[in-house]
Each structure stands twice: as structure tokens, then as C-alpha cells.
Design a protein that fits this description.
Chain lengths: ~375, ~375
């Protein structure tokens, strides 16, 4: 069992650098969690607090209801894997993996058993006698993982573990890593700057900014139902429309944006209040309209009128840059094979799917500050 | 503001090949992306252009003038490195003004240009900060300002966004292209990231083992990859091996499991070939839509698994005895449950066809299997 509980954890470096602020969340036993956020958001500090290399200034961390403040690093039963392979170059793979159990004072027989089991699990058995220099980068990371298993750690901390690998290998390793964690029933906490990696590998993802937890949820929650402006901005790409709520029904609210009214998800914001509507760029649908249609009120669609600025081909998809009537520029991502070509000055209607349009109270500090990283 | 030409440029490091026979013309004001894996020769090419290395053979021309022997400092090239390389003991402003001071340019003018650069690059207010007090994205903006401020008319960037977070990278890709175009600079940008290359560049040069294997606009390179290597490098694809059959003037690829795909090719009947289809061109529909969709190939299939990776769903599909990958933008409503019965629509010109002999000689890339 390795449930981890962060209770109002704050870490202040020096006098006033608050690296982590009032962090509270629970990581369940056997869960795979990723931490994402811009550089300096507190991801690595959180990992170091877990490891015990630094202690919280305030708040407490529990492993299975045991408070960790008086428990040293070596007694926390934690394994680490870093971006830069911390394996000993002068030791064979077997010796590297045996290092953990041997410093823990295990008997020779136990060490042999643990090492062989770990090497088998990582498919390294036939490379046991080799030295790191004759192996590839993925095998170094596998050695580091085998060492964690041989040390019988139940919690695995990963700091950009795939950062040094080429893209294709990285994608294969993501699947491998997740399967390993699940098979060995470890609890894993993985820090990465690669969002796709976090979304692929994890059960839940923690989004952090400026030392605070912004949202925690399943990958699909972060994409489809972000709970705040920052998550909408940071996870994937969204555009933000500013308007005023003019009506609220059960499921949807009506928001006036410029001279137009659009239907968006009702997120409990009262009539008359200013809102920011966040829409992911994949959810815009673009249709060409004639000049006559442009001036006509569009009652059939939930849409905003606009003019195309540019179409950019990107292989995987096309990006269409559009200027709305209120002069705001948005960008729609559409399928690369969409047969319609959009040209500069084309009049279009930007159709909005109300279920995917999330509305949030207009931040007191303004949008730019709310999105500051 | 300068036209760059490389003629038969070769560089060896001792016995090791850096690049071989590079012939490349970059137009005035053009944005060229140099794309390839680690060790493909990208950095060597950039260093040769900037004058940080000299070629073993061949020559380099700027505006038809031979600069092969011209030292780096006289080439007027602004260079941005992956690791920023800012002077840690100088503040942001001194870092940016270092070039103009060394070159003895008019400092009043340079300060004015620097101020404009700070505002263009959104780093106003950081002038007095030291490099370790600003974020990675800001450091790279400072490096960019430093590269441009000394009247550089050619900007050379070696994987400038590699060390940055995904979000900042996306933002800077857009900013970079805009800046280069606004200032009318000629720009060469090396990257290992296909998406980045497509996003920033007018043309892309794909490097492999020290040679250029293909050069063209993003659309050309993507739609008409010259080899299996380039096609695979550009993104995630599925491969189907089979034999070409021509019936009633139409070409098909038949595989051993009875799959028969309509394709577009000049290859003759009986030729063994690989049909490669990028994941994003495999369109997934509910089985009920089978009669409504209009594709050259409409194939029954089944979902094996699907996952959402941000802007796309990545879907593994069982089609006859093959596993095919699909990527669908998340805005579309499609069946995603395991074992759902679906149809796949693929147009014939979406298959990239390569005869198998070519594949064997061209694709010698060593891949490490996990």
C-alpha cells in the first residue's frame, strides 16, 4: 500500500520564494500521476518534497497515514529515475541493479533473487554482464528502473525520464513504462514538460502554475472539461472570447460577444456577469458564407461571423486564422483533408459547439494576468 | 536580406562525415527549416553557413559573393543556439548590446533597436535582470534579440526551442515566424520536430546521414515524400505490404489477407510494394455511415483501442489482419469504444507507395526497439 497525501504543503525557499503554495491532494495506491506546468511552476519541488530531499515549510505529507517529516530519504522506500541516467558507468548492469538491495544489507541470496527478477521484468537478463557504455539510452533508463524494482520501492518518482530519448523511441517507452508500473503495482509520480506524454501515460494529471495546483483530473477531463482559464490555456490550445451572460437556462447560458449572442455550457455564472468563454481550437467549425449571408442574422447556427486572414497547412491539420467582428483573432484547427480551401478575405461563420464552450467568471486581475506563467 | 547558396559543400571531421555534397539555395527573405534526427548534419550545415566551421570542399555564397574564407565575424550572421549561450555575468541589456559594442556600431542607434526588439519580443522590463533570473522562454527571446540587433541580415538558429516547455514552444514558433517576416530576414532554423518545421518554414530541407534527402514546401514534402524514410519521419503512419495489381486501368495493392486497396501509382502489375498511410488520413466513421461516405476505399474495421493525446485521438484499428493507426481531431464525434464496428475511409492518393526494393536500399536507419 502506498497512498500519498499532501496536506496544505507550502515550501518557501530563502525568505519569500514560494515554490509550492498550499498543495493538497491525494495520490491513490497504484495510481500513475503526472505533474505538468510551465518551468518554475513547482513540479520538481513537489517531487523533491515527496522524496524527502527538502522538507515542507508548512503542511504535512503522509504515506499511508504515516507522517513523513521525520522519515529520512532512505527510509521512504522511494525509487528515482531522472532524465540523465544516474547509473554507475564502472559497474555492469547486474552490479548497478544490485546496488540498491546491497546497501540495504540484504543477504547474497536475496540480492541475487531480487536482481534476477528485476532484470527479467525489464527484459535485461541477457545484458546483465554488459557495461553501460555498450548499451543504448533506453537500456540505461531500463537499468535505472530495474534498480528501483530490485530495491523493492513501492513509489516511483520520475523526473523527465524520457527527456533524452528521440521522439519515436520515447513514444514506445511511454507504453512500456505505464505497463511496467501497472504490472508491478507501483505508485508513480512523473514530471514532464511534454503534455502528450502526460496525457498518454497517466491515470490523472496535475496541472500546476506558480506553485499552486490549478486542476487535477483524468486526461480527458483536462481536455474536455477544464475547470478554469489556465487549464484551458495550458493544456492544448484554446481561444478566449469575452462577453456578458444575457440568459441562463438549464444546460446552456447565452453570452453576448460583441454584437452576437452565442450559446455556451452553463457553468453557474449569473446573468449580467462578465465571462470568458474558452473554446478549444479543434472544436470550431468553419463554413464559408456569401456576402449577403454575412449581414443576415444567423439564427440556425450557434455561430459568430468572421473573415479569414490565413490558411496554413501543417500536414496533420490545417490552421485557419479568422478575424471576428469584434476584431479579435481566433484560430481554428481543421482536418488536413478538409476539401474547402479558405482564402484571405473569405467571409465565414465560426460555428461553436455549446457543449465544448466553457464559460468562466472574468478574472479580477484580467485575462493576461490569469494566464501568466 | 541576403541570398545564401551552398555549392557541393562537404565537411569531414577526421574520417567522420559531417555533411556531404550539400547543394542548397535559400532565397532572400526565405524561412528554411532544416529537419532531421540527431546526427543528420543539421548543426554542421548551420556552423558552415555561419562560418564557425570551414568546409573540407565546396563553397558558400552570400548574394553571389564567395564567403567560404570569410571569418564568422564578418559574415553578418546572427546565431541562436539551443542552449541560449547568454553571458551569465551580464544583464539582459548588456547581453543584447554586446555585438554592437564589439562591432563599434553607433550605440544610441543600437539601444533604440534593442528597445524595439524588447518590445517586439515581449521582454520589456527585464533589461536589468541577469540570465538566471529569467525563464527559459525569455532567455531564448534575449538570445534572439542579441542575434538580430547587430544588423544581421541572416538569422541562423540551431534547434532554438528544443529546451522549452511545449506551450512556450508553440507560442514562440508563431512569434519567430512573424518576427522574421516582419524584419524581412533570411532565416535558417534547424529542428528535429516535424510539426515545428511545418509551422515556421516556407521550405523544409530533410537531412539524413549528412545529406539532403528532400527539399520542398511543407505541403510538397508532406504530400509527396520521396522515400519511405522521409514518409516515416514526417509522422506516424501505418504500412501495408502487398503486390500491385492493375485492373481496368486502375491500380490496386493486394495483400496476403485479401485486403484490396485502390491506390495511385505508376508501378507495374506484380511489383511488390509498401503502401504507407499517415494516421491523420485514415478517417474513422460509425458503421451506420458506410453508405453515406465517399472515399476511394471504404473498409470495414474494428477499434482495438483509443486514447486522447490532447488535440487528437490516437486510435488503433484492426483491419483484416493488420493494425492501422488513425489520428482524429477531437472536435469530431466518432465511435471510440473498444471493439466498436467502424468503417475507414481512405482516398487512393493518400497512400504513399514505395516499391520494396527501394525500401531496402533507402531505409537503413537503425532503430532501437524497446
Amino acid at each position: 500500500m502506498s497512498e500519498i497525501h499532501f496536506q496544505h504543503v507550502t515550501k518557501i525557499f530563502g525568505r519569500k520564494v514560494e515554490a509550492v503554495k498550499d498543495l493538497s491532494f491525494i495520490i491513490e495506491d497504484g495510481e500513475y500521476i503526472s505533474l505538468i506546468g510551465p518551468s518554475g511552476c513547482g513540479k520538481t519541488t513537489t517531487l523533491r518534497l515527496l522524496a524527502g530531499t527538502i522538507l515542507p515549510t508548512r503542511g504535512r505529507i503522509f504515506f499511508d497515514n504515516t507522517a513523513m517529516e521525520n522519515i529520512s530519504i532512505q527510509d521512504r522506500n522511494i525509487g528515482f529515475v531522472f532524465q540523465h541516467f544516474a547509473i554507475f558507468p564502472h559497474m555492469s548492469i547486474w552490479e548497478n541493479v544490485a546496488y540498491g538491495p546491497s546497501v540495504r544489507g540484504k543477504s547474497k541470496k536475496d540480492i541475487e533473487h531480487l536482481v534476477e527478477k528485476a532484470l527479467k521484468s525489464l527484459q535485461l537478463s541477457d545484458k546483465a554482464e554488459l557495461y553501460p557504455i555498450s548499451l543504448s539510452a533506453p537500456d540505461w533508463q531500463k537499468t535505472a528502473l530495474a534498480r528501483v524494482l530490485a530495491s523493492e520501492s513501492r513509489i516511483l518518482l520520475l523526473d523527465e525520464p524520457l527527456g533524452a530519448l528521440d521522439q519515436k523511441i520515447r513514444e514506445e517507452f511511454q507504453v512500456f513504462l505505464r505497463n511496467l508500473v501497472k504490472k508491478e503495482r507501483l505508485t508513480a509520480i512523473h514530471v514532464t514538460h511534454d503534455q502528450a506524454e502526460a496525457l498518454t501515460i497517466s491515470d490523472r494529471v496535475v496541472v500546476m502554475n506558480k506553485g499552486q495546483l490549478v486542476q487535477i483530473g483524468a486526461p480527458t477531463d483536462l481536455i474536455f472539461t477544464p475547470s478554469n482559464i489556465f487549464t484551458s490555456f495550458f493544456v492544448g490550445e484554446s481561444d478566449f472570447l469575452v462577453g456578458v451572460v444575457v440568459d441562463d437556462r438549464e444546460k446552456y447560458s447565452e453570452v453576448k460577444v460583441g454584437n452576437n449572442i452565442i450559446k455556451v455550457s452553463n457553468m453557474g455564472i449569473e446573468r449580467g456577469k462578465r465571462v470568458v468563454v474558452a473554446i478549444r481550437r479543434e472544436f470550431f467549425q468553419i463554413e464559408k458564407v456569401s456576402v449577403e449571408d454575412k449581414t443576415r442574422q444567423d439564427s440556425k447556427h450557434n455561430s459568430l461571423p468572421g473573415v479569414v486572414i490565413q490558411e496554413q497547412f501543417l500536414g496533420l491539420l490545417k490552421r485557419i486564422k479568422i478575424k471576428l467582428e469584434n476584431q479579435q483573432i481566433i484560430e481554428a484547427k481543421i482536418h488536413a483533408k478538409n476539401p474547402i480551401h479558405f482564402k484571405e478575405h473569405d467571409n465565414v461563420r465560426v460555428i461553436i459547439d455549446p457543449d465544448s464552450a466553457r464559460s468562466f467568471s472574468y478574472p479580477k486581475e484580467g485575462i493576461v494576468s490569469a494566464l501568466e506563467m | 536580406m541576403v541570398k545564401v547558396k551552398l555549392k557541393d559543400v562537404t565537411k569531414y571531421f577526421g574520417k567522420d562525415r559531417g555533411v556531404e555534397n550539400i547543394n542548397l539555395s535559400i532565397d532572400d527573405g526565405e524561412y528554411l527549416a532544416v529537419l532531421g534526427v540527431t546526427g543528420a548534419g543539421k548543426t554542421t550545415t548551420l556552423y558552415l553557413i555561419a562560418g564557425l566551421l570551414s568546409p573540407s570542399n565546396g563553397c558558400i555564397l552570400f548574394d553571389d559573393k564567395d564567403v567560404t574564407k570569410l571569418p564568422a565575424e564578418d559574415r553578418n550572421v546572427g546565431f541562436v543556439f539551443e542552449e541560449y549561450n547568454l553571458f551569465p555575468r551580464m544583464n539582459v541589456e548588456s547581453n543584447v548590446l554586446f555585438g554592437p559594442i564589439v562591432k563599434a556600431l553607433d550605440l544610441t542607434d543600437s539601444r533604440q533597436i534593442a528597445r524595439e526588439m524588447f518590445s517586439l519580443l515581449n521582454i520589456v522590463g527585464k533589461e536589468q535582470n541577469f540570465p538566471d533570473e529569467i525563464s527559459g522562454g525569455q532567455k531564448q527571446r534575449v538570445a534572439l534579440a542579441r542575434a538580430i540587433v547587430s544588423n544581421a541580415n541572416l538569422l541562423v538558429m540551431d534547434d532554438p526551442l528544443r529546451a522549452l516547455d511545449a506551450k512556450i514552444r508553440e507560442i514562440l514558433q508563431v512569434e519567430l515566424r512573424k518576427l522574421v517576416k516582419d524584419l524581412g530576414l533570411t532565416c535558417i532554423h534547424a529542428t528535429h520536430d516535424t510539426h515545428e518545421a511545418m509551422r515556421v518554414a516556407d521550405r523544409i530541407a530533410v537531412f539524413k546521414d549528412g545529406e539532403i534527402v528532400q527539399i520542398g514546401t511543407p505541403e510538397e514534402v508532406y504530400n509527396h515524400p520521396i522515400s519511405l524514410y522521409v514518409a516515416n519521419f514526417l509522422g506516424e503512419s501505418s504500412q501495408i505490404e502487398g503486390e500491385i495489381v492493375i485492373e481496368n486501368n486502375e491500380s490496386f495493392l493486394k495483400n496476403s489477407s485479401g485486403l484490396r486497396l485502390k491506390i495511385d501509382t505508376n508501378l507495374k502489375t506484380g511489383t511488390k510494394a509498401i503502401a504507407l498511410v499517415p494516421a491523420e488520413l485514415v478517417n474513422v466513421f460509425d458503421i451506420s455511415e458506410k453508405d453515406k461516405i465517399n472515399y476511394d476505399n471504404v473498409i470495414d474495421a474494428q477499434i482495438i483501442s483509443s486514447k486522447c493525446i490532447g488535440e487528437f485521438y490516437e486510435i488503433d484499428i484492426k483491419m483484416h489482419d493488420l493494425t492501422i493507426k488513425s489520428k482524429e481531431l477531437i472536435g469530431r464525434k466518432i465511435p471510440l469504444k473498444e471493439r466498436s464496428k467502424i468503417v475507414c475511409g481512405i482516398d487512393k492518393d493518400d497512400f504513399r507507395i514505395f516499391p520494396i526494393e527501394e525500401e531496402e536500399s533507402n531505409d537503413q536507419e537503425k532503430t532501437t526497439k524497446i
